[in-house]
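User: Here's a protein and a ligand (D-glutamic acid). What would the complex look like?
Assistant: Let me lay out the input and then the predicted complex.
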Amino acid sequence: MGLPDHSPIGIFDSGVGGLSVLKAIRCLLPAESILYVADQGHVPYGPRSLEEVRSFSMEITRFLLAQGAKIIVVACNAASAASLQMLRASFPAVQFVGMEPAVKPAAEQTVTGVVGVLATPATFQGALYASVVERFARGVTLLQNTCPGLVAQIEAGALDGVETRYILASALKPMLAQNIDTVVLGCTHYPFVIPVIQEIAGSDVRVIDPAPAVARQAERLLRATKQLQSGDARGSMQFYTTGKVAGFSNLLPQLLGEEGEVKSLSWVNGKLTQKLA
Ligand code: DGL
């Protein structure tokens, strides 16, 4: 038995990256209410150990469930790589939707047989990526790059800045020289720089944004468990950040095209607590 359908969907990421997933969910399921946690006190997750990211994910999940979330979307590849298995084992009654780099569709669609994958170190280290490569990438050459510093640029709203362009050009040019025709975005922050990626790579290169597929998976799970919210009214959105409220609020119109209430959360001895305004 699931929670009533007016309960919110819980979504989390290390920062603003998960907003790319939220946007796709809101587009497909506008009646759903959403609770979003941005762990900006710890961003970036990519260079951290899998154990550390796992402990953050466990506590954020506990928090979202305590706020009434009916399912949890781990809108972060690094957190999915580190913790999806443990989350499912620790909360067996809860449905999780996770991220994995879209190597499968890329391998199916590539004509040159060479695919670029942009993701953070935690994602490349995790068993999830190894398993996706093992299952789907036979006969395809995968060229990987961690785009150091790109998450920080996107967190600062610098979607089109000199540094952002430099990081992306440094990652993509060697890949283009090896004839990639497809780019997989293995970090939920990166869809926000698709225009720059497309400009550098050219319009013949296909860029795969996994967010719409993740939104469809959330819809399937909600439908299967009879928790889909119906009706014409748009769902509410509540955001929480462990970083600076003003910084997150200011980025919402740019990244999401909508505003929303943002509350402050803080980490105290490994636990999340709400700060009173
Ligand atoms: N957006 C996240 C991901 O999909 C995390 C980026 C980071 O914090 O390093 O991997």
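Summary: The mean pLDDT is 95.
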